[in-house]
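One record is set out below.
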Amino acid sequence: MLIFIKLILAHLIGDFILQPIKWVVHKQSHKIASKYLYIHVILHFALYMLFLWDLSLWKIALIITIGHYFIDLLKLYTDSLFKKKSIPFFIDQALHIVLIYCCVFYDNLFEHTLTLFRNLDWSLITAIVFVTYPASIIMGVILEGMSNQIETDHKSLPNAGKYIGIIERLFVLIFIVIGRWEVIGLLIAAKSVFRFNDLKERNNRKLTEYILIGTLVSFGLAILSGLLYIS
């Protein structure tokens, strides 16, 4: 597992810290002919060897480097197929992690993967999934009658409220799991401070009540999920 962590760290440094925007743009425009693609790949190999600090593991580092090259090529030539650029980005990163995982645990890949899945905390995973999109949909149903009476703010970012709610519920769930209930109060206070000026300027009682109810329902669902998990 230590080797896997070291290689992931090397990958993060090579892909995010030691890769200037200039390289990324050049690779996107020149693709396989980009000199920075090969500099990037060689840099990764050097980082893998540096973090492994064991010459006997050079084959693993080389295989991962070659795989990294082809994964990057795949992303460069399929980027245009996606409207949302975040999709190929996350697919690319997932493939890199899977490649590293397979290379590190190649001798007992099936057994290790099976053990990994058996040891997953499925109750926690269920709670995490619930507080994301399912909770958002439940809130939408609960607040449907009220939302029709609120004027839409066209200046707001698309789906901003939904994503804020998901993030805050995840935070609440984490704090309950680790037993830090007091931080939840700070989270509510912080959200109230950010919302105060906005609500004060609009002087809209319906909007204020709608946001307050939505916040309480959101936190309530997260707290309920956390209590069910720890019980």
Summary: The chain has two domains: 2-118, 122-230. Residues 2-118 form one domain.
